[in-house]
Each structure stands twice: as C-alpha cells, then as structure tokens.
Amino acid sequence: MILLAHSKISIEIDQNGKKTEREIEISENETYAGLLKKLGINEETVLVFNNKKPVPYDDVIDGGKIQILKVVFDQ
Q1: Residue-level pLDDT at 64
Q2: 6-70 sits in which CATH class?
Q3: By Cβ atoms counted within 10 A, which residue in 11, 24, 25, 54 is the most buried?
Q4: CA 48, CA 66: separation in Å to the nearest integer?
C-alpha cells in the first residue's frame, strides 16, 4: 500500500466581486481540475491563477497563491 503525501493550500475564490479564502487539503500530484472538482466548481465557469498567472486545469498544483475567479455571474 502506497500512502500519498497530503498538504494544505490556501485558495482565494472571487465570486461576483465577493472574495473568500479557504484552506483545503490536496494530495500529491493533484491537478487544478481535481481541486475544482473537490470544491464543486464547474471548470467552464472559472479561471484559475497561480501567483497571478493563468494555469491549465491539467497542470499539477505546485504551491503558490491560488486564485479562482468566477467568470459566469449568477443572475
């Protein structure tokens, strides 16, 4: 049995101009797509940034300051 290393990351979610911060545990080799899935966020409604640079959803999270910007607004 192989145990994966887990770590906690801090993320900022900007939704309709309201910013919230969360801390979430991720596993080693977690992708941004996996993070969004854990958070229950549809990939088609957000942009993800790490250190203010956009990142592809299939990239592995390697630390940094993660920001999730919701681009589809609720009515």
Answers
A1: 86
A2: alpha beta
A3: 11
A4: 7
Q: What is the predicted pLDDT for the residue at 75?
A: 55
Tokens of 50: 């790490």
Q: Give all strands (DSSP E) within 4-75, no chain letters.
A: 6-15, 18-27, 46-50, 53-54, 66-70
Residue 3 pLDDT level (bands cut at 50, 70, 90) = very low
Q: Where are the domains of the chain?
A: 6-70
Predicted TM-score (pTM) of this structure: 0.83
Distance CA 36, CA 39 (A): 5
The chain-wide mean pLDDT, for the chain, equals 88
Count of C-beta atoms within a 10 Å radius of residue 11: 19
